[in-house]
Design a protein that fits this description.
Chain lengths: ~110, ~110
């Protein structure tokens, strides 16, 4: 069974540009999560989807961040316009329906904003 | 409040035991987790413990939970060079799906 995959693995963009990150969860997992680790600090929760619906977006830093999960399969996280403080590693995770105690994480996308 | 703290670094010799510590502040935490991140890789779920348990053992890994002191530890027996990684402690609460992570402890195993 394939794990959670993320694309790209690394992205370098200039301040003010737009970047879209993609996450493919484990097949059949209804729950999908985005997390972010900035500058060696703790990993912070961004938001949680159940299928295509946003269940909790309390961790989204501001309205420059837009997450979608059309069709309830893969998800995208768009940052527009990117700022320097958005640099970090963006992790995606997924878990089975009704289960929060086994979240499986992807390898992350390292975003560098210059 | 929600806060999970870990020491940043730990260095041990190959063959010794490693103990990675974590403290948390939220007494309503339901599950506590240990994740491992090897260089260039994602987060690997190592083990988790339910808050009504005191201990969980899985091969070389032993998790101890002191709920009174809100202290969680991960002991790795017979530490190997392949155990070198960053170890993250995390907690979650019943009814929520978000995990609260610590800053991670970088374990370096010396040959």
């Amino acid at each position: 069974e394939a794990g959670v995959t993320q694309f790209p693995s690394h992205s370098v963009i200039e301040k003010g540009q737009t970047v879209t990150l993609r996450c493919d969860p484990i097949s059949g997992h209804d729950n999908l999560y985005w997390y972010r680790r900035v500058m060696g600090k703790e990993i912070k929760f961004l938001l949680h989807f159940v299928k295509e619906s946003k269940q909790d977006e309390s961790g989204m830093p501001n309205n420059r961040f837009l997450a979608e999960r059309t069709g309830g399969t893969y998800s995208t996280l768009k940052v527009q316009p990117a700022e320097l403080e958005d640099s970090g590693v963006y992790f995606c995770a997924s878990s089975q329906a009704g289960q929060n105690y086994e979240q499986y994480f992807g390898p992350g996308t390292r975003l560098t904003v210059t | 409040g929600e806060d999970v703290e870990q020491s940043l670094f730990l260095s041990v010799r190959e063959g010794d035991s490693s103990v990675i510590n974590c403290t948390y502040t939220d007494s309503s935490s339901t599950y506590l987790y240990w994740y491992k991140q090897e260089p260039g890789a994602g987060l690997q779920l190592l083990t988790y413990i339910f808050s009504n348990m005191d201990m969980k053992q899985d091969q070389r890994l032993t998790v101890l939970l002191n709920k009174k002191d809100k202290h969680l530890s991960l002991r790795i027996a017979d530490t190997q060079t392949g155990d070198s990684a960053i170890y993250f402690c995390a907690e979650s609460k019943k009814g929520t799906y978000k995990y609260i992570f610590g800053t991670g402890t970088r374990l370096k195993v010396l040959a």
